[in-house]
Amino acid sequence: MSKIAIIMGSKSDLETMQETADVLKEFGVEYQMRGLSAHRTPKEVVEYALSAKDNGIKVIIAGAGGAAALAGVIAAHTTLPVIGVPIETKSLKGMDSLLSTVQMPDDIPVACMAIGKPGAKNAGLLALEILAISDNGIQKKLERYKKDLVKKVKEIRL
Amino acid sequence: MSKIAIIMGSKSDLETMQETADVLKEFGVEYQMRGLSAHRTPKEVVEYALSAKDNGIKVIIAGAGGAAALAGVIAAHTTLPVIGVPIETKSLKGMDSLLSTVQMPDDIPVACMAIGKPGAKNAGLLALEILAISDNGIQKKLERYKKDLVKKVKEIRL
Amino acid sequence: MSKIAIIMGSKSDLETMQETADVLKEFGVEYQMRGLSAHRTPKEVVEYALSAKDNGIKVIIAGAGGAAALAGVIAAHTTLPVIGVPIETKSLKGMDSLLSTVQMPDDIPVACMAIGKPGAKNAGLLALEILAISDNGIQKKLERYKKDLVKKVKEIRL
Amino acid sequence: MSKIAIIMGSKSDLETMQETADVLKEFGVEYQMRGLSAHRTPKEVVEYALSAKDNGIKVIIAGAGGAAALAGVIAAHTTLPVIGVPIETKSLKGMDSLLSTVQMPDDIPVACMAIGKPGAKNAGLLALEILAISDNGIQKKLERYKKDLVKKVKEIRL
Amino acid sequence: MSKIAIIMGSKSDLETMQETADVLKEFGVEYQMRGLSAHRTPKEVVEYALSAKDNGIKVIIAGAGGAAALAGVIAAHTTLPVIGVPIETKSLKGMDSLLSTVQMPDDIPVACMAIGKPGAKNAGLLALEILAISDNGIQKKLERYKKDLVKKVKEIRL
Amino acid sequence: MSKIAIIMGSKSDLETMQETADVLKEFGVEYQMRGLSAHRTPKEVVEYALSAKDNGIKVIIAGAGGAAALAGVIAAHTTLPVIGVPIETKSLKGMDSLLSTVQMPDDIPVACMAIGKPGAKNAGLLALEILAISDNGIQKKLERYKKDLVKKVKEIRL
Amino acid sequence: MSKIAIIMGSKSDLETMQETADVLKEFGVEYQMRGLSAHRTPKEVVEYALSAKDNGIKVIIAGAGGAAALAGVIAAHTTLPVIGVPIETKSLKGMDSLLSTVQMPDDIPVACMAIGKPGAKNAGLLALEILAISDNGIQKKLERYKKDLVKKVKEIRL
Amino acid sequence: MSKIAIIMGSKSDLETMQETADVLKEFGVEYQMRGLSAHRTPKEVVEYALSAKDNGIKVIIAGAGGAAALAGVIAAHTTLPVIGVPIETKSLKGMDSLLSTVQMPDDIPVACMAIGKPGAKNAGLLALEILAISDNGIQKKLERYKKDLVKKVKEIRL
Fold this sequence. Notes:
Eight copies of one chain form a homooctamer. Chain A is of the alpha/beta class. The first copy, chain A, is built from six helices and five strands, in the order E-H-E-H-E-H-E-H-E-H-H.
């Protein structure tokens, strides 16, 4: 059963959000991916958010661009941790997505990531860190993953 | 029966949105004002948006600040014209509210106004212009109002 | 007779504003498109704005970039609803167009859309929503259009 | 007869534009000040711009804030040099006024100054520099004025 | 034993971060608050981050302003979820703090909140949502808290 | 003898500043173009600025990018009107050039144009407008040029 | 004999630049402070920069606001290390000063500090770090100063 | 023995930081280049910073992008002068890197350069200027280098 949900509102977001999926796959953690838009399928978003906890979801990751309401609207309907990924946009390069995702009013937290692919990958890692609090297997893998980061940097041949 | 709805999500928005109410009052057009938040009362927002047309509402005006999802979420649930007023915020001075209100994805239009009180007043006037298309009485008043603007500027004693 | 006017000031705006025309065509609503610039043909702009209502125009949509005065200048001369589309610009990516369009002073409303093509398409849809208040045929089509949005999102194969 | 015109669209701009008037007074050069708004008195603006040259005006200075169309609209109707002063605004601190004044399309030049009072004073000085090209008296005074700037800085007691 | 750590680098951050503490107190969840700076006490930050998990900490919340490295540096040394609160700054109003907190490179997630007090309060709530995944008592309280938000909005007397 | 000087500090500015030269050529007005940099050839800049008036120059146009000090430094050494063209830059797209050119302190006016080529062309036109105050021939050509702008817009085939 | 120069162009910069002086005084290192403006006293700036090295100056610190050319112009005339402090401005809060100071073209380095007082204090400390490379006494004091920073943070009573 | 260290945290920074290396090579000054990341190899960064002075390093240059903590973290652990180069980023074009590098809190100076390659080259030159204070050979070369800048500009054929 999937513990992590990856939501996005437009086909063009998929290239970015694939980074989230890839890191979860790398860790062997199941996820479900859904096309849901706060603006185009608002009812489905509400239903999904309201039933997520009962369906075993522990963390919801939402990617959206421009006037990016998706993560905030999901957070409005659930007490699960919600992670928002601001998608890079054509004109404003994701500054619009970033401010619409991060500047949430008090009482409705959204964990905002960096704009674009680095943010999408980190969304997956943060979800894993959250699960790892009560899952020793993921914890171990995260610790190994962190150690391996050193290698990446050392590969820089100067 | 009210033809114009004024919605806002927080007490602190009232000082701004009163400008909308005042200009509608000046024109003698009925409105209803509601406290509804896309993030704190999401179900009520959806219900309100879905039933607005049947309740005789012709135009919905929504004021919100920060990650301002309110106007967009209402627009997601109705085919009535929706006008968004970006409320000035403490840190980013409404730049966050502006981008979250105006950068709507295609298919879900929101008519965005200027940040703060000038935008709130103009939201009322735009709603009146929309009603005036099929209401000659309002049309007349708008034309007189426009003529009187000249006086305001001429009052500048230099 | 055209009820909707689409105005732009430069050839390079046409690619963007074609989105407005396309959505109106899709709805079978007549429009007229004009090349008029607040800076290069200021007299023609004023004449057009002053006579639009008598010519049967109900809504004016104006696209402009940079120091984008077009929508505001038209709004200065008419009580018809005016919708502004900020065109993306080479250096500042439309942030200049956006602020020049949206930050209107009180008393002169302009309904500002998103930067670029999404904004241009939404300008057409907002004009249709405005007409739909007193035109049941357009209202019906808008409701169907909104329902079909769900399909677009569901097409996301994940 | 006044050779320099100072135009502004709102009472609140006067505090800033008084700087322009003061520096012209200091140089003993006549000016006329007018309340004219591109948005609230658009016809008067056009008439003023069209007749300015015949009325002996050599340089027009226009102060405006927000979606600041005034300088650009005047420049659209005259071949006189037009100087624009972006007035500081409440929310965006004049960044909106600046971009709406400076980002003019090609063919319609506006000489943009700094935001607020320093810009207003410099607008007066630039107008004087322009007149000085064919007016030796003003030229002399400008050279003396420039020399005196040294004193201002030397007064800094450290 | 404290499960949540609140870290900040300067006395002036305390007024903001008190919001985090207050909401945790309201939920009856223990926390520890520490003055630790990535720039002024870098060794202590590293030691704290490295030992946090063994000391029973489940979530670390870090508030910092300007070139806000604190949350990122902590995240570099732990696999615990790290939440960053960008503190409002004097000149740039927290835009600097926001970008330094949110634009993390891939592999090192930081959950960024809104600038200032709303972000600080939400940091506390997000930490609670994370704990609630494996703590039914907190889950219940969060659900009640969410329901009570409706009342706050309804209190708006219009 | 050249009445207009076009100055720039780097080879890469030439593509932009050629627009200034082209419009002056179109009007048959002589100009001189110089490579001079406030940062790389500071002495030559000062000498040029100090001697420009005696050499018959009436208006100086300076193009520079990034920390664009050129126009301001020239203006510091002369009472001739100085026009600044902010060159588009690689990272910040000319926002840096714009602010460094336009935000001059009081007492040292620089007439700032739009970023990039539109600004460069307008710099030439503004210089012509300044000369036209005491040169009827240029005045006539400017009036014809303005009339022809109407044709450019009318060429938009819609 | 002073080894460090503190330069500023306007009386209003003194409040900020006093921070630089204070930290140098605290370290017992002599400095000289001068009122010199790239725009108002350009000749004096050039003379000062050209003779600084021969006068025993090792590091020059320049504070300026708005179109802040001072540090760059000094760097253009000397091979001494130049440190720039962007002064906070009224409208744009120092974003203009920052970009005009930091975005220097290649070949003319300026060491840019943070906007305002923190930057002014750090300018003094950086100058000390530079002198400390060949001055063991200052090196010792800097190391003690760094150790004492820990205390400042520990004073936070939580 | 290397007196200058060039540090960077990611392979993609190398293209930019090569500019630093190239200018040092041109001056015949030895440097060492290391791949070290504040976020991915935090322990190695600390060790490197703590031992740099004993290893004969006089100046440390650090290039980083996004939430660029590298220069600041190094500065936290050493009293050597630290120069920060903000690397251009994909979405925000280095504005994030710039603010994270330059907006350092007081007591921890970082000498910030321009975004990208011009900044990287200037970092090398500033390091040379710092060494030149007590190294006459480098001083001579810097003076010759500065004189040669004049030629670069004169090569502009206009």
